[in-house]
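Hi R.,

As promised, here are both runs. First protein below:
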Amino acid sequence: MKTLNIDLKAVGQKRLLQLDELEEFWNEAYENAKIYKERTKRWHDRNLVRKEFQPGQQVLLFNSRLKLFPGKLKSRWSGPFTVVRVFPYGAVELKGEGPNTFKVNGKRLKLYLGEDIYKCFVAF
């Protein structure tokens, strides 16, 4: 050791400084990731559109099982169905062409505008 002229105390201090710098770098990276995550969450939440259905509205139902049988011309939306009742927490009771009603998750629905669009074209 003495022949190489190495000061162990100085080497130890330098290594501790390097470890402190590395820890500061990790903390800064963690904070930046946290800020990025919060910003993207705010952006995503701001662009969400709330779906609120009223009884009597016409809606289309998304058929998620159709993904198993892919086809270019098959529509994944079926309907239109009529909203009978809206339950809290997003559940909706629908009525099809028959007398039976059934409950579905409101996230699987979208507003049906077919008749309104047809009326717009007739007006021209």
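And here is the second one, sequence first, then its structure tokens:
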Amino acid sequence: MKIAVIALGKIGLPLAVQFAAKGHDVVGVDVNAQTVDLVNAAKEPFPGEAGLQDQLSALIPSGRLRATTDYADAVPDADAVVLVVPLFVDAQAKPDFGWMDAATAELARHLTPGTLVSYETTLPVGTTRTRWKPALEAGSGLREGEDFHLVFSPERVLTGRVFADLRKYPKLVGGLSEAGAARGVEFYEAVLDFDERPDLKRPNGVWDLGSVEAAELAKLAETTYRDVNIGLANQFARFAATVGIDIYQVIEASNSQPYSHIHQPGIAVGGHCIPVYPRLYLWNDPSATVVRAAREANAAMPDYTVGLLEGAYGDLTGARVVVLGASYRGGVKETAFSGVFDAVAALTARGASALVHDPLYSDAELAGFGFEPYHMGEPVDAAVVQADHAEYRELRPANLPGVKYFRDGRRISSADQWPGVGYRVIGKA
């Protein structure tokens, strides 16, 4: 097949590589010329994706994969077009379709009969049918269901392990018609491989969910579940700390029963998915009080964690406090909705001098976020762990000279590693 992948980001580029590795001819489209140049030079444009560089090194010279900024070079006569352009949520939790609208308009201009179009970006329920279908028809002059087919198939992978996740999880597809859904299933069966999953009630593979709306809701539901679960764990942790209970023992005990799956509490819920998709769900269902309460509870955790520090330290005015980790999670160079921003804001509001350290970011990059960089070995009064980078598991007081209090927002350390230092983890008194 000839396949076009629109947007070569941390999901789109691995998808393009996966399709090409299955023997198809793939052209990736991206508005960033630097990204296109790097891909065509067989160089990964972002670090940390397992197996990506090796695949690029093999596929680019073979001619199976190339990149362009020109939709006219990629879309006409394609058997399938997969779009993974980001969708943003503004400060009022309203979806901002700007980038997706622009990409859809360009796609429509060059769409030719016989093409399958698949959107993989997570969307509010109803978007594929009420927004993308009319936009594609108006821009192309073609009719969906007759001249082309449109499906929604949400990405379900985690950056850093995309290729493994593509094999591990069923690929969900929802079409606007039975014929479109069948075409979508046929396409994804031709470009993906799946691990055996004896734990599933039906074989791992491509699953037709029966409607495009069901596929849209499935992605929102699985991610919103995680946010609500974490919100509940955080509520348990805050209560447990007030009555001298170790919440981690409680969670371990509770989860020994097969119907309990309590997640872990922590300083923040970050990334492109978990903080965002519950808001997309709330856009559809504003009366979902459970979802809203969980989102508010999780958003409050950075300030709560800094409050724990303040309660032990006292007045933080003038105190040098380092926030360990700018990334939203360990091992990933990405700050989307990272707790670092609210943690720094909470410290600054209390008069502290907030510093930020992250082994994945240079001083210039940290300064670009508005942070004052911290270097290990410099004097500091207190520390707050925000990201669970592996490097932080080895920290000791000698790495943070003068540290008096260590607030572990990710449970990466323990009190015995911090003799003479006020150590505390979320969820324990």
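A quick note on the second one: The chain has a mean pLDDT of 96. Let me know what you think.

Best,
J.
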